[in-house]
Design brief:
By secondary structure, this protein is of the alpha/beta class. The protein contains 21 helices and ten strands.
């Protein structure tokens, strides 16, 4: 229960107005329900001749209010029968029941309706919170987690929270109110019977709680299997070309079937245990009714009975009304653990600490005037103690183009990822214009930097929106100018709707060269003073490489550029080339100087001449 209340404090508190409305509506519904039954029983008692006594009106007062209320209801009933006769009185009783039932059901509907915005609002808030958290966590988090698992937590787990927790919230507001009002009525009618009932009910609560406590662990396991199912689906969609190329459809299908069967089995166990709630509560509720019937019968048949038969019938009606909300509460004892298991998985994302932190009073930086400097930079990933970068010292003067070369895995991409703080250095410093980047506002730092990567990441949107991505209020003229510089305008205009044409998922409707030129146009429009090129032409054919290289040369003019390249021909004209090997800079100089040196760079150059 503590975990459940904690979830409510975090997410339901902003919607407390809806909860107050639900409480008021449920209280009104309970009062109308009790009043209708309480007033009808004595009426029917006299109407059918079971009581022939004569009654007179007694003034209302707190002392002896129970006897006064019963007497006055008998009095009003006798007056109706005397004035209108038995048939008309019966009709009036029916109309009275219809009116009270209408207002009772209207109140019940209102109580349910006001909870809908709360339920949908909490789910929306959780989804936005998870999405926002994933957006702001470092790249290492997404690399360590399976994308399908993250998607499963935002879809299946959040939906389970809505179904199990927020939907149960309506019952948790309604049922206690009904139970309290009905219980007070039972005490009012017969405290002896109520005392006996109270001694029996805890057994029901204990049995239901014992069964429900084991549900959370089973639900947690089932949700983990759902995550594996979504991960397999994500991998299949992302690798469909390779799957078909290697004729691995059957292998992938068998993998999916296995994990899907495990998810089904886990879901079956959860569903079977949850389905146990209704029959168990039904059986135990019937046992309570039987026991109360037996005890009430012994009271009625005894001498000086504290309760008569009509009152006992009314008592049983109200007691049966108590059993239904008790059953609903028992269902919530099954539903809530399922939701808490899903909330635990969601919290794994929400509570993940972001290691990339800003200082409380960041240094302002609006321009780039001097250069970038690495001072004794070391770096290792959080989940791997082995260092990837070992004591790198490097200076990039403003307006210069430097290149990083080396074998795959030498640390080139990791080194440049430290500049925009996708990761933070383990030790050492990275400075821009002499200021440690850790003291800068992350937004200001990244606004100085433009990226063109080996994999051109596009969104399933129009050419215009992909080029204008990250640039507020970009005009069509600016986008067209950027596309022309990037050698992209011609093929954009040849598409069906020009700049309004959608590029497909991750740009799947475009060739590799076209995607890369759109990526370059995006960087051109941003117009950053610092440019990072991460093997921007390595995956292209000769013709596409020529067009992209022309676009890159236009983009690099008057900018400070750090280029990572495997093809040495693309960086020969760099102002300085740094050779990396196993996380260290082992050589640096111009192309000619490094060839004369006869070290790692010359070896790489000779390999590409073969």
């Amino acid at each position: 229960m503590k975990e459940f209340l904690k979830v409510l404090r975090r997410f339901a508190l902003p919607y407390k107005g809806y909860m107050i409305g639900a409480v008021v509506a449920n209280m009104l519904s309970a009062v109308l329900n009790v009043f209708s039954f309480m007033s009808v029983m004595p009426m029917l008692h006299m109407l059918f001749g079971m009581d022939t006594s004569s009654y007179s009106f007694q003034p209302w007062q707190l002392d002896g209010i129970k006897d006064i209320a019963i007497n006055n209801m008998y009095y009003y009933t006798s007056e109706l029968i005397g004035h209108y006769g038995h048939q008309t009185t019966l009709l009036l009783i029916g109309i009275f029941l219809c009116v009270t039932t209408f207002f009772k059901t209207a109140s019940y509907f209102l109580a349910s309706a006001v909870m809908v915005p709360l339920r949908t609002g909490v789910v929306r808030d959780i989804r936005v919170l998870v999405y926002d958290k994933v957006l702001h966590l470092p790249l290492a988090f997404v690399s360590d987690e399976r994308r399908g698992d993250i998607i499963a937590r935002m879809s299946g787990d959040v939906a389970e929270v809505e179904t199990s927790i927020t939907s149960s919230l309506n019952m948790l507001i309604k049922d206690p109110i009904l139970i309290i009002f009905y219980f007070c009525t039972l005490v009012f009618v017969s405290w002896q019977l109520t005392l006996f009932t109270v001694l029996v009910i805890p057994g029901l609560v204990w049995i239901m709680g014992t069964i429900g406590r084991k549900l959370k662990a089973k639900s947690l396991f089932a949700q983990s299997k759902w995550s594996e199912t979504m991960s397999q689906l994500d991998e299949m969609l992302g690798g469909l070309r390779i799957i078909k190329a290697f004729i691995a459809e059957d292998k992938m299908l068998n993998r999916f079937r296995n994990v899907n069967d495990e998810y089904r089995d886990a879901s079956n166990r959860v569903a079977i245990r949850q389905a146990l709630a209704h029959p168990v509560s039904e059986f135990l509720g019937t046992c309570i009714i039987v026991l109360v019937l037996w005890f009430g019968g012994t009271l009625i048949f005894s001498e000086n009975s504290p309760i008569d038969a009509p009152t006992f019938i009314f008592y049983m009606v109200i007691l049966y009304s108590v059993i239904n909300p008790l059953k609903d509460l028992s269902k919530t004892s099954y539903q809530i653990p399922k939701g808490l298991a899903s909330m635990e998985r969601i919290d794994k994302i929400i509570n993940t600490e972001n290691p990339i932190k800003e200082t409380e009073h960041p240094t302002e930086i609006a321009s780039f005037d001097k250069g970038i400097e690495f001072r004794g930079v070391h770096f290792s990933y959080a989940n791997n103690p082995l260092e990837v970068i070992h004591g790198v010292d490097l200076t990039v003067p403003k307006g210069k183009t430097i290149a990083l070369v080396g074998q795959s895995g030498s640390g080139k991409s990791t080194l440049v990822d430290l500049i925009p703080r996708y990761h933070d250095v383990s030790s050492g410093e990275i400075l821009i214009d002499g200021t440690d980047i850790k003291t800068l506002r992350i937004h200001d730092l990244r606004s100085l930097i433009g990226n063109v990567n080996q994999e051109a990441i596009l969104f399933n949107d129009s050419f215009f929106n992909n080029i204008a991505f990250g640039v507020e209020n970009a005009t069509m003229e600016q986008v067209i100018e950027a596309a022309k510089i990037a050698n992209a305008h011609e093929f954009i205009m040849q598409s069906e709707q020009g700049y309004d044409t959608f590029v497909g998922d991750r740009g799947c409707r475009l060739s590799g060269g076209q995607r890369q030129r759109i990526s370059i146009a995006r960087a051109i429009l941003k117009n950053p003073p610092i440019l990072i090129l991460d093997e921007a032409t390595s995956a292209l054919d000769t013709e596409s490489e020529r067009l992209v290289q022309e676009a890159l040369e236009r983009l690099m003019r008057s900018r400070t550029t750090i280029a990572i390249a495997h093809r040495l021909s693309t960086i020969k004209n760099s102002d300085e080339i740094f050779v990396m090997h196993e996380g260290r800079i082992v050589e640096h100089g111009t192309h000619e100087q490094l060839i004369e040196l006869g070290g790692y760079y010359k070896h790489l150059n000779d390999m590409q001449q073969l």
